[in-house]
Design brief:
CATH architecture of the largest domain: 3-Layer(aba) Sandwich
Strand content: 25-35%
Helix content: 25-40%
Oligomer: single chain
Order of helices and strands: EEEEEHEEEEEHHHEHHHEHEEHEHEEEHH
Shape: globular
Number of strands: 18
Number of domains: 2
CATH topology of the largest domain: Rossmann fold
Largest sheet: 7 strands, antiparallel
Mean pLDDT: 87
Length: 430
């Protein structure tokens, strides 16, 4: 469960931008909130802003941190830290560290993790936990100084320090060496959060790369049953979905196809996904007709991907971070999917959804509290700022958020200056 996340000097974010899932004193929509220990959190956060305002960059920061924690222990000596992508429009930022800070719950524990890094080295890294709700250090690492350990830290120290490279995270290296006191924090990035900053990549590779294996493995599993019910409930005309592993024994590949190409092809198209539709004889149901997944509409294929991702998050209680998942979906379907997180029955494990969107209709249906709505915009220096709707003065309960936003009263809307373009077009005509 996410408490807060901040990023500084990353992509278009020059100064610190922080998103918190903590509630304010606002009342209403109680089903959109939950309490863990003594902290009250919201179940979702929605981010609005014009194109190129920094929404995707902020969500990409989640992915960058997840990537670093999961794989940096395998970085080679002097290997570049790929997520070092500082703000480029200010000269001083090019030589300043990228900084991430995240506070979260996982496996009953509360953690606060901070990391600051350059192109090829970690500048600083700290991990705290909260036994009895009191903040305590687990470890603190700063470039050029000995690593400090808190009293709660249990596990290897000198051995890990010898193995640790400047471009590797101590958290990753300690987890690789089974240091028990940090494993829960590490597992949050493996099992506690799902980040999809560019969902188009998954649409292009189809459902097979994500959930076909689970559908094929057991048609009676909870996931398979719920996936089928979800797809069938959303007016797609589909009566069922099934996936089967393809038997390549009777498939003739070209004789000159290299084995590695053949293997890659078989892995990519390992499962045959079919949708079931009712076949009619006049006005009577006659049989079932099977469609290939590629025969379905773009919207249906998008629904297959985001539907599976959402069910996975709800089933495991994870934090889901996704960019513009509503593309190709009707607003009513988008609203339904969002409300799955706000419903205590469908979200019994308090999974959280964080996503960016341009769909203003979601502001008009009383789906969100004001402390769930966020905006991004850039200043004259090209730097992104992130701010919450509930922090804007003058907004009261009942304020039509969609109308205020569309008219620019919250900011975070595109300012279109077409004067130069019109002049240029007139010049072409002359």
């Amino acid at each position: 469960m996410l408490i807060r996340f901040s990023v500084e000097n990353f992509w278009s974010i020059r100064d610190k931008a922080e998103l918190t899932m903590k509630t304010t004193a606002l009342k209403g929509l109680r089903s959109n909130t939950f309490k863990n220990r003594n902290i009250k959190l919201v179940k979702s956060a929605i981010i609005y802003g014009p194109n190129a305002s920094g929404k995707s960059g902020f969500l990409r920061a989640f992915k960058a941190l997840e990537y670093l924690v999961r794989v940096s222990s395998s970085f080679k000596p002097e290997e570049r830290i790929a997520p070092f992508e500082p703000f480029k429009l200010d000269l001083k930022n090019r030589n300043s560290p990228v900084e991430f800070n995240i506070e979260f719950f996982h496996e009953g524990n509360q953690f606060d993790y901070f990391v600051s890094f350059f192109n090829e080295k970690v500048e600083s890294e700290e991990l705290f936990h909260f036994p009895r709700n009191i903040k305590n250090l687990l470890f603190s690492r700063k470039n050029g100084y000995p690593i400090k350990y808190g009293e709660s830290y249990r596990g290897g120290k000198k051995t890990i320090e010898k193995l640790l490279l400047p471009n590797q995270l101590f958290l990753s290296k300690a987890a690789e060496n089974n240091v028990e006191s940090v494993l829960s924090a590490f597992r949050f990035f493996v099992k506690g959060i799902m980040v999809f900053p560019f969902l188009e990549e998954y649409r292009e590779t189809s459902l097979a790369s994500l959930y076909a294996k689970r559908l094929a493995a057991d048609n009676n599993s909870n996931f398979s049953k719920r996936f089928n019910k979800l797809i069938c409930a959303l007016d797609t005309g589909i009566k069922g979905v099934k996936a089967e592993e393809i038997d390549w024994a009777n498939y003739n590949f070209p004789n000159n196809m290299p084995d590695e190409v053949k293997t890659k092809f078989q892995e990519q198209y390992k499962y045959d996904i079919k949708t079931q539709h009712t076949l009619f004889d006049g006005d009577k149901e006659a049989d079932i007709e099977y469609f290939e997944i590629d025969e379905e509409s773009t919207g249906t294929k998008s629904l297959f991907i985001i539907g599976g991702i959402i069910l996975d998050a709800l089933e495991t209680g994870r934090v889901l971070v996704v960019d513009e998942f509503e593309k190709n979906l009707h607003p009513s379907i988008t609203q339904f999917l969002i409300n799955l997180f706000h419903n205590e029955i469908t979200n019994s494990k308090n999974s959280q959804l964080i996503f960016a969107t341009h769909d203003i209709t979601q502001l008009s249906n009383d789906c969100f509290r004001r402390d769930q709505v966020w905006f991004t915009e850039k200043d004259e220096f090209g730097s992104t700022s992130l701010y919450r709707c509930s922090d804007i003065k003058g907004i009261r309960l009942g304020t039509p958020l969609d109308k205020w936003y569309s008219t620019g009263r919250f900011g975070a809307t595109p300012i279109i200056d077409d004067s130069d373009f019109i002049i240029e077009m007139q010049g072409d005509e002359d």
